[in-house]
Design a protein that fits this description.
Mean pLDDT: 85
Structural class: mainly alpha
Radius of gyration: 23 Å
Shape: elongated
Number of strands: 2
Order of helices and strands: EEHHHHHH
Helix content: 55-70%
Number of helices: 6
Largest sheet: 2 strands, antiparallel
Strand order of the largest sheet: 1-2
Length: about 220
């Protein structure tokens, strides 16, 4: 997780990077371990998580309209995966926000093509910002590195969730009498929904990388 952009009105979530952290980012190497003991005991161990995960998970469980079915080995996974996806979403957007700030100082292409030299105040403003953009190569490289890691983590998460869906289907098929058909269908459909959300975040993360590459190429090829 990289530090949030100052004065970003759309980002109302907590800051996860301590102000004493000079690196400007905090990597959480989250480890999630679950155990189910038949017939109705679920245990979850979460390691190296954001500071607010316990309270967030507790609040999510308390908001459920009905209690968990602990006869289902996957009962605890639903709210936990929802919360992890929320953190991933925030991570992706906190890469996107500084990329957008870079784009805001980029010269619009139509000014280069059509505007007569010296007649575009927008172009003049951009020219004043060019040295600033040039000094951003190191921060841009760091943002790119975080974006690559984020996409990598999302890819691994997608594979993990897909494997979880396969195993969930296998368990339900072996003991179809354990849970009602409607319950099984809804559980599998919701996991598919979570997989699709993660895939969408992966697309957004990949887009961040492409946009950042465009900014790097723009600064590298600027005249003067």
């Amino acid at each position: 997780m990289i530090r949030k952009v100052d004065h970003e009105p759309d980002d109302t979530e907590p800051e996860y990077v301590p102000h004493t952290n000079v690196k400007g980012y905090e990597w959480f190497e989250m480890g999630i371990f679950t155990r189910w003991d038949s017939p109705s005991k679920c245990q979850v161990l979460c390691i190296d998580t954001p500071f607010d995960l316990p309270n967030q998970l507790k609040a999510s469980l308390e908001r459920r309209p009905s209690g968990l079915n602990f006869g289902d080995p996957f009962a605890m996974h639903v709210d936990l995966i929802d919360l992890i996806i929320k953190y991933y979403d925030l991570s992706v957007w906190r890469v996107r926000d500084p990329v957008r700030k870079l784009e805001e100082v980029s010269i619009p292409s139509f000014f280069v093509t059509f505007a007569p030299k010296g007649q575009s105040p927008e172009k003049s403003n951009w020219l004043q910002n060019r040295p600033y953009a040039g000094r951003l190569f190191k921060p841009m490289h760091d943002i790119s590195r975080h974006g690559i890691h984020t996409s990598e983590i999302l890819s691994a998460t997608i594979e993990t969730l897909q494997e979880m869906l396969r195993y969930q289907t296998e368990v339900y098929d072996k003991e179809p009498w354990t849970h009602e058909k409607t319950y099984q269908v809804q559980a599998k459909e919701y996991l598919r929904f979570q997989i699709q959300l993660t895939k969408s975040l992966k697309l957004r993360s990949d887009s961040n990388q492409k946009r950042l590459e465009n900014e790097v190429n723009l600064v590298r090829n600027q005249p003067g």
